Amino acid sequence: MEKTAALNASFTSYSLSFNKILTPKNSMAAVSFLASFSPRIHSLSSPFPSLSIKPKRPTNTFQVRSVAAPTEDVAGFDDMVSGTRRKYYMLGGKGGVGKTSCAASLAVKFANNGHHTLVVSTDPAHSLSDSFAQDLTGGMLVQVEGPDFPLFAIEINPEKAREEFRDAAKNNGGTGVKDFMDGMGLGMLVEQLGELKLGELLDTPPPGLDEAIAISKVMQFLDSPQYSMFTRIVFDTAPTGHTLRLLSLPDFLDASIGKILKLREKIASATSAIKSVFGQEETRQNAADKLEQLRERMVKVRDLFRDTDSTEFVIVTIPTVMAVSESSRLRASLNKENVPVRRLIVNQILPPSAFDCKFCAVKRKDQMRALDMIRNDPELSSLKLIQSPLVDMEIRGVPALKFMGDIVWK
Ligand SMILES: Nc1ncnc2c1ncn2[C@@H]1O[C@H](COP(=O)(O)OP(=O)(O)OP(=O)(O)O)[C@@H](O)[C@H]1O
Questions:
Q1: What is the ipTM of this complex?
Q2: Does the keyword Transcription regulation apply (predicted)?
Q3: What's the rounded Cα separation, in Å, for the pair 215 and 201?
C-alpha cells in the first residue's frame, strides 16, 4: 500500500513537472493543478519500474526548476474521443521517432474509452506486433489482448497489395498487350498513348502505391456492414517520404488507371483479334471491373485524407533539428494537399531532473533549441504541441502503451 502511494506520488510529480514549467510564481498553481489530476493518476500502475522509484521530495516541496519551456498544450483527447461517428487518425513522421508507439497508445486509449477500435499498419516495415508484444502478423484482423474494449489490429502486407495491382493492370492492357499490338503491326495505336509508360508503371510501381492500396483495402472492408462497429481507426503510416508520395499518388494513379482503361477500350474496339489476348469476355470484364474498383478506391483514399470532419493527420517528431525540419516540410506538403493537421507530438523529451549530468545537460540544451525551432516555425507553430517524455525502458505491451497513452493523450 505504502509502495503504491509512493509510486503514485512519484509518477504524479514526474508527469506533471514534465508537463509544466515550474517557476516560483506558478508553483502553487502547479500544485493545485497536480491535485486536480491525482485521482486519474492514482489509478495508473507504471509498467516502468525505474520510473516508480520513490519521490525525490514530497510533492508540495519539490524543487521548482525551469527545465523546458515550450508552449505546451494538452492533446484535447476529450474532443478526439467524443462521438460515435467513425474517425480516422493517421500518425506519421520521420522513421524511428515513435509513430508506432504513439499510434498504438492512442488505439489502446480509444478502446479503453469504449470505442471499437482498429489500428492499422501500412508501414512496409511493420512494428505493431513488436509494440503490442503480440503476434499480429498475417494481414488479417487480430484482436489485441488487454484493453477493456475490443481493439483489433491489422498489418497489411504491402507486397501482396502491389501484386494485386500488377495483376489487375496487366490483365487490362499492360506490357503483354503492347507486345501483342506491336506484333500485330498496331504499335502505332499504343504509341499514340505513348506517354503512358505502361511497362514502367507495371514493372516498377510508383513508391507509395503499396501503402495507398493497403489503405484502400482497409477502407474496402470497413465499408461492409459487418465492420460498421469500428468507430475509431488509427493508422500507423510509413515514414515521411512514403507518405508524401502517397499523397500525390492517388491523382497520378487515377489518371494512369483511367488511361489504362481507355487504352483497353480503344484496343478492343480496334480489332476483335485482341480478344485472344484478354481471353474470355467474362474474364476481361472481371479484370476491368477490378481495375475500375481499384481506381475508385484510390479516389476514396485521396478524399479520406482530405476529409476534415472525419480525418486527422497527427505528425510525430522528436526534438532534434533534423526531425523538426522534416516535420516542417511534411506539414507544408500536407497543407498543400489540404490534409487536416492539428496536432504535433514531440516525443522522447528528456524528463526534468534537478541534477543533470554533463551529457544530459547538453542534450537538454539541444532539445530546447529544437523546441524553440518548433515555436518559431511557420508550419508548426500553429499546431497543438503535445510533449511525450523519453522513458528509460522500451514501450512494449498493452500496460506500457496505456501508461504512455495516459501521458500523451490528455
Ligand atoms: N518516449 C519514448 N521513450 C522511450 N522509448 C521510446 C519512446 N517512444 C518510442 N520509443 C522506442 O523507440 C523505438 C522506435 O519506436 P517506434 O517503433 O514507435 O517508432 P516508429 O517511428 O514507428 O519507427 P519506424 O519508422 O521504424 O516504424 C522503439 O523501441 C520504442 O519503444
A1: 0.98
A2: no
A3: 20
